[in-house]
Amino acid sequence: MQYTVIGVWQDDKLVVVGAIPGQHEVYGGDEQTFPDGLWATCVNAADVAEAEQLATSDMIENNV
Fold it and tell me: What is the pTM (predicted TM-score) of this model?
């Protein structure tokens, strides 16, 4: 199943905010509260826990 995983960068660390079933475009976000950045990616995973793990690994490996 595909999941869109959404998160923020905080103190140079990835923080997952949530995962939504399906592939979605993500817009906006509170860049004033999270000045280090916001991120979102889509992954194929068996469940939410795997989606979060795959998303953070993908973001780190691709230096996003």
Answer: 0.87
Rounded Cα–Cα distance for residues 51 and 34 (Å):
22
Residues 10-44: pLDDT tens digits?
888 899 999 999 999 998 888 888 888 899 999 99
Token code pair at residue 61: 């490996």
C-alpha dihedral sign at 64, 12, 40, 18? positive
* Residue recorded with tokens 């509170």: 30
**3-state SS track over 1-64:** CEEEEEEEEECCEEEEEEEEECCCCCCCCCCCCCCCCEEEEEEECCCHHHHHHHHHHHHHHCCC
Cα of first residue to Cα of last residue in the chain, in angstroms, is 23
